[in-house]
Design a protein that fits this description.
With 508 residues, the chain is mainly α. It contains 27 helices and no strands. Pfam families: DUF6880.
Length: 508
């Protein structure tokens, strides 16, 4: 028997998965709260935990009180909510950032009580309280430091919930509720109730919107014409604009394009939204009218983006892309495909619009797209705005041409255009280290020359990227040589300790 034994070394070792799992001692069960683990605590222990938390946490106490009140019926829950809403409406004190968190928790508890306790018992009562809550939003937001946007987010949550509840009501009740919002919005056009009404219109049956449209028209008529009275009334104009927009939403729900256009002309007589009108006309099979609207003279509007302001560079004005896209759709609907293609190519040629070029190529007959693409790349090579050309070539992508463009115009690159240069440098780094080096140096030099301390972490990353690229450069590939360039940075910017601290820390 002894000879038949297998030595320990010869025995195959069982995997961890095959080994029997030892029974866990009773004291080592999972402690994550779950229905199963909490049930094992027993009611007495759970009651003790709940009472302890209600003593420490006022918001939790409100939730527990509301859950207990729900056993008595909707009136008991509504009374709790009404007391809190009355307190909110009567409060006047300013809430600074130190009190904001507890205030937000309290507001969230109020909304939760309405939705979790009152709504299942009486949806219309819950909806009334949500409307009352939203009606006080302006007063609350005016006295709270809501830098985080958390308080506004709670009102958005309440708005979404109100839309859901109202849309689920019987048709007549939902329409009646929507009409009842009009006088409230007229009294307070700046709050969330306008958003509630517009979102609700998008959910209601078009056949249920007649009374609402008539009510809005009557409210507009009651406003009168503030301009004819010789006094500017911006609040009245805002109310009028909001009511008109809701009526346009109703026109859209009904598919009434002419009503939408009439309302747009009344709202913006000097500059109606031609793209909005034309898009609806095209959808409605009235492409010729859409073209007429798009080709009417329009005031030039230029919106400067935040990125442009930060970079200190404002992109040149150019035709709105949505406008061109709708015009192309109208032309194709009329069977004028070549004109649509000419418009696509013209948009690309003017702005290097990659999406338009892709659409243009997709519409070409077979075997003609290669020649057209070569022509497009040649156009990009000679495009006068180098940064736009670089962005197009990198985004397409055609990195070989992008690298040639960078090297052919070494003095053209502006380090403030980081939104273009940084992704271009990163895209070129693998296969085109010379071009990537030039761009990374441009970005780094700009940050250090301008002393942009907030951008030092980016500058440090560019510095380290340059170190990695230097190992792949042939001698004489760039001027000055990497070591000479780094020494120059130390001489010129040696006192920028915030930057060099990042570099020395990374090196360590």
């Amino acid at each position: 028997m002894a000879g038949a034994r297998t030595s320990k070394a010869a025995r195959p070792e069982r995997s961890k998965l095959d080994r029997p799992k030892p029974d866990r001692p009773k004291g080592t069960r999972r402690t994550t709260p779950s229905p199963e683990t909490l049930a094992e605590l027993g009611p007495d222990r759970l009651i003790g935990l709940i009472l302890g938390e209600t003593a420490r946490n006022p918001a939790f106490k409100k939730l527990v009180s509301a859950a207990l009140a729900a056993r008595q019926g909707p009136d008991a829950v509504a009374a709790i909510v009404d007391r809190r809403l009355a307190a909110l409406e009567g409060a006047r004190g300013y809430i600074d950032w130190q009190k904001r968190r507890s205030f937000a928790i309290d507001l969230d508890a109020t909304v939760t009580v309405i939705l979790n306790e009152l709504r299942p018992l009486d949806p219309e009562a819950a909806l009334d309280r949500l409307v009352r809550f939203l009606g006080g939003s302006d007063a609350v937001l005016n006295r709270v430091d809501d830098g985080s946007g958390r308080i506004g987010g709670l009102y958005e949550r309440a708005t979404d919930a109100a839309v859901e509840i109202a849309a689920a009501l019987p048709l007549e009740a939902a329409a009646r509720f929507a009409l009842g919002l009009v006088p409230r919005i007229m009294a307070d056009p700046d709050g969330f109730l306008g958003t509630l009404l517009r979102d609700l219109v998008a959910r209601l049956d078009p056949d249920a919107l007649g009374d609402l449209d008539r009510g809005l028209a009557e409210a507009l008529g009651a406003l009168g014409d503030a301009a004819s009275q010789g006094r500017p009334d911006w609040e009245s104009r805002f109310r009028r604009a909001l009511m008109q927009r809701v009526r346009q939403d109703i026109a859209d729900r009904r598919g009434d394009i002419d009503a939408f256009i009439a309302l747009e002309e009344a709202l913006m007589p000097e500059a109606p939204d031609q793209v909005a009108i034309a898009s609806r006309l095209v959808e409605g099979g009235r492409a010729a009218e859409a073209l007429d609207w798009l080709r009417r003279p329009a005031p030039a509007v230029r919106t400067t983006t935040r990125a442009e302001l930060i970079a200190g560079f404002v992109e040149e004005a150019h035709p709105d892309r949505d406008r061109v896209a709708i015009e192309i759709r109208a032309l194709e609907a009329l069977g004028r495909g070549q004109e649509a293609q000419d418009l696509r190519w013209g948009r690309f040629a003017d702005l290097l619009d990659a999406a338009m070029l892709r659409d243009y190529l997709a519409k070409l007959p077979d075997f003609e797209d290669d020649e057209a693409l070569a022509r497009a790349f040649a156009h990009a090579d000679s495009f006068p705005t180098r940064h736009r050309a670089l962005a197009f070539l990198v985004g397409w992508p055609n990195l070989e041409r992008a690298a040639r463009l960078v090297l052919a115009h070494p003095e053209a690159w502006d380090g403030t255009r980081y939104a273009i240069l940084a992704p271009a440098a990163e895209a070129l780094a693998d296969d085109h280290p010379r071009a990537a080096t030039l761009l990374f140096r441009c970005l780094l030099d700009t940050i250090l020359d301008k002393g942009l301390s907030a951008a030092y972490p980016h500058a440090a990353r560019y510095y380290l990227e340059l170190d990695a690229l230097a190992e792949r450069l042939a001698p004489g590939a760039v001027a000055p040589e990497p070591d000479v360039y780094k020494a120059g940075l130390r001489r010129k910017h040696g006192r920028k300790y915030g930057f060099w601290g990042l570099i020395d820390g990374a090196s360590l």
